[in-house]
Amino acid sequence: MAAWSDLTFDVLEHITSFLPLPDHYRFGAVCKNWRSISKQKRQPPTPQLPWLVLEDDKETRNRKFYCLSEGKQYSIDIPELHGRYICESSYGWLFAVDLKITGILINPFTRECYELPPFPEYNEYTNVSTLIEKMPSDYNGEPIGCTFEEMQTIIVWKAILSHDPKERSDFTAMILFGQMNEPAFWRPGDSSWTVIDGLDCSMDDILYFKGNFYVVAAMNLLSVVDFESKPKLIEVGLEIPAQISVEGCGLQRYLIDFNGHMLLIERFGHSDTNDKSNTDGFIVIEPKLEQNCYNIWDDIDGYALFLGRNACIHVDSCRVPKCKKNGIYFTHPTESISPVEFGYHDLGVFDMTNKTIGTFYSAEVIFPHVDSPVWITPNPW
């Protein structure tokens, strides 16, 4: 019988077509021959549930990830992320901010990276770029009203990409930044962010859908970005009344491209005695812009959604083991600053069928942390 190390190239490559991402790395650790097959990355990993990006390990500085499919935590050395706050993910890329309030866009599994220009002013009183220029080792100044550690976590509220940078170099990055979550965009080669003239209200989420960027604000106010002449937001003109009952309180709105359908998702809940927001459920709405109407969805066609500080993700539960059918997995996008917990008191999975909320994590995920967890779909090749 031939040794495992002597299996032919075709056989080994066929084996890798059945492996999820963690097993690809285990496969490459078996022997030199298998490692050479693994490095060629000819077969993509089989579909898995999204991962959670957690905090740095305080001793090793490795970035911790939680693989939901395995219920297992991994620690990966990614020097570019040392000391950085992960504020968003899109197409498997992470937006990360350091203590000097400078940002990078990085694929944590390939280490491809873009340096981002300085972020726009947080508000009219705080020009972070000016403060950074005054930061020799003996500088003790801080942004008005907060520390640099706090500014690191709140300068960017949401961020998305128009396309996967590995597939198109002419992608656009769009962020909601500052005190009012204003929109701004950047393209490779730009020396600065371009701020978009917005509305007099705070924005909740952004979406790239069929060639346009859309933004949702309070009261389900939908706008589209007009890039002609001076970029600005234009209301789409569709009125979508809030679907929250009088018992509930609107916490957050999300936008997602769901198999060619734009969905607007309302998250509602209540505040506890410690003034922490707690999720009670979600309402799924389909704005039909061309017909100037909307529909309420009772389920999501057997899929699962993953919402939080990420470009919203949808997964076909029929193709991915352990995926909850018609489930909405969520993390809490809190801006609360606490030395003990940051975004870990309110995360779970909402069952659209029976309107209940359960857990999806093991105990290791809810130990005290300082970073808000972020969903990511690994994009290693």
TrEMBL record:
Pfam families: Beta-prop_KIB1-4, F-box. Residues 4-41 form the F-box domain. Gene3D superfamilies: 1.20.1280.50. Signal peptide: none annotated. PANTHER family: OS07G0183000 PROTEIN-RELATED. InterPro entries: F-box-like_dom_sf, F-box_BR-signaling, F-box_dom, KIB1-4_b-propeller. It comes from Rhynchospora pubera. Residues 65-351 form the KIB1-4 beta-propeller domain. This is F-box family protein. CDD domains: F-box_SF.
